[in-house]
Structures are given as C-alpha cells and as structure tokens.
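Exam revision sheet. Question 4 asks you to relate a sequence to its structure. Input first:
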Amino acid sequence: MIPAKQINYRQWHELFKEIPDERVKNTRYYHHLPDAEWSQYLFPPSTHAVYGNRLLRKMKFDNSPAALRLWGFVLSESERIYRARQAGMKVVAVVGDLGAITPLVYSFPDTVAFYPDCLWWTPFLMESRVLFNEAGQLGMGEDCCFVRAALGAFSKRAYFPKPNLIIGTVGATCDDMAAVMSGTEFIGNDVYYLELPARDTIPGNQQRQLSFLADRYREVATRLEAVTGHSFSEDRLHETVGKVNLIRSLISEVKDLAATTGPNPMGGMEMMNVEFAALSYYGDLEECTAVLGAFRDEMKARVEQQNGYPDQPLRIVWVTPPADPILQNYAEDLGARIVGSEYVINQSTPALKTEGDVFENLAEGQLAGSLMGSSRFRVDLVVDQVRRAKADGVIISGIFASTHCPYETRPIIDAVRKEGVPVLAFDVVAPGKKQLQSQINNRMEAFIESLRMRRSRRAG
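Answer key, structure tokens:
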C-alpha cells in the first residue's frame, strides 16, 4: 500500500498517469445504459478545474484511487443528471428535506433525484458570485443564507436540467430554502409541497406525527405515479430501502474508521463527500454503493496498517458543513484532523426500518432530522459526537443570515464547553471577501495552536 498523504491538483495530474487505461474506461455510471465514453468519470481534479471549479487548484486531495473515484463521482453529478434526462429518465428535484424522501423517489423505475440545496457549494468551488448575484436580482441578497445559490441556478437554467417534478418541503425545515422555493415558483416553476411537522417529544404524540407524515408520503407516491407513469410498488420500496441502508451503513463505518486512534486515515473533505452521499446518492444509487464500498475498503486497510497522514494529532468535531470547503484543508494544514461531524443531515443517518408500514418507516427516519425540533436535539447530537470521538476541540462554521445558525450556535457552544472542550465559532464569508477570510484563517490558526498547547500541558 502506498503511504497516505494529501496532494495538490498538479500532483494528482501526474499521479493519474499511473492509473491503467482499462480502469479509467470501466469506471462509469448508469451501467443499465449502453456503454459510452460519456459515462466515464475517473478523472484528475485538474480536469474539473478546467471546467470551472477553480477552487480545486488550491485544495489538497487524498492520494488513493478510491478517493479520486469519489471526487470524480461527486463532481460529475450535474453532468449525470443531464444525461439521465437525455436518456429518458425522470429527474426529481427535492428541496429542503435533505435525504429523507429520496428512497421513495428511487423506488420508481428510471427515476433519479438531486438536491438543488447543495448548489450552495458552487459559488465557492467556482470562485464566482454569479449565482448569488442572480438570486439578489430576485430578492434574495446577502441578508439570506448561501442556499440562495439554488434560486440563482433555477433562474439561470444551466446547472441542472428542468426537473420533471420539484418536491419542496416546508414546515419544520430550513426557512431559507422555503424562500428559495417561493422564488422558484415566482419565476415559473411548479412546486409540489410536502409539509413536515415539528418533532413532538410529548409522550403519546409520536404516533400521531408518524401517521400525519406517512400520509404525506403516500400523497408524494401518488404524485410520483403521475409523473413517472409507473405504479407505486411496496416491494420495490423494500428493495430500495435495503440498498439505502447499505449506503448508510457504509457511511457509518467510514465515520467510525475516521475516528480511530493512530494517524489520520483520510481527509475531511473526502469524508464530507461521503456523508452527503446519503442525500441523493449523487444521482446513481448502484454506482454510489460501489464508490463508497471501495472507499471503505481503502480506509479499513489504512487503519489496519496504521497508514495515515503525519502531523495531524488534534481531534476536531466539525459542526455545520462549511460552505467554503477549503477551510477543512486549512485546519488539517495546521495539524487538526476531523474525527466527527454534525452536518444537519441526521435524518439521512439511521438505518430505515424494514418491518411494518413502509411510509411510517420513512416518516420515522425524517423525524430524526437535525433541524425538526428544539435546538436541544441538535446540541445533544454534537455532544454525543464530542464524547465518542474524544475530541480536543469543536469548530462551528456558521452561515451569516441563516435562519437556524443564530439560535443553535450559542447553545452548542455552552454545552460543549460544559464538557471541558474548547469551541471556535465563526460565519463563513462569501467568495471574494479576502479581508474577512483572512480573519477566519487567523482565528483558526490561534484556536488550533491553543489546542496544541492545551494537549501538551495535559501530557506534560
């Protein structure tokens, strides 16, 4: 096994020459379609940088073929969704629920899902404010969360194909995405709304909630029947749930491997890509399973052989996914490793039940959502991560103007500090704000240095 290390995109460009042509040819998505060159996705980051993802030129990547395959699969999602539509498949945009409803969508034949929410990373990857500016023209300016990029993408009509169906979740979910849905309707798109109830912890009320949400999912199934031309099949949903549970178990295993003792076996950005696979499986459920399986095998071998990155001893739990992903690279450069996370997608984490009413099982998974109830629920999720990972510190990368960050950050800070663990909290800044970005870098440097000194004092 080659020594694990993080390399830049130029180094990956050179290392890519060692990958056999046959492997490149056979690494493809949508295996149910005729073999075609357009379905290949194993390329170095430099290829994706040429196509506009300029931030890749500044990032560091794991040097394993399994990680390269993961990056290629993630960065080709938009292209894949276009190919699906061209091949006659139905494309469903799901907005706001973050991973709970996609098992139902994928249970329908020749149907894929994607999350416009995740386009909030695009302005950072492209180092461009085009989507933010477009959203601003439609009334969502800098006083709104970065998810406003999704509205800009709906308006531009160049980042994903026109969906056959848009499912917008409202109620106990992100208010910023609710504003995006409203704007999406305003510019001429039809949105089918799904109402999510707030999580009720009063004894005896849980079944009422499950029944309410299960009925909403039955209505979604009826709508999907009309869009896809296929009848809902409980057997197909059971089969899909089995595949989804396999993906969730792979993600759980990978997270456990990342938190083991010994050298850091994998980078934080690769780990974040793995976690977000649980939302829409990046548009190909079967290939996503294969990608994560290979990634898990790589990490397992590294942990067994104590093969990891040197000089990253400080154990960090990261709270809220950083809209600017290079922040995790910076933390690692300073000597930290990410051993736990709470990325507001807890609803896509637990295995779904396979016995009982299929719609109630989906509803129960949704009701485990990070943002569906009081802040206390999410605070407890973070504290659990801190304890299990034996974290040295916690970093919270909030979003200015996000509706939930101001209410959750303070309680999380207080709870983590009661555990005796230091916390750094800041708001990620939009692309181009160099002075504010330098302030964040300085704060991260000081925080991680303080963790290093704290650990030295305890050891001494």
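Marking note for examiners. Residues 6-459 form one domain.
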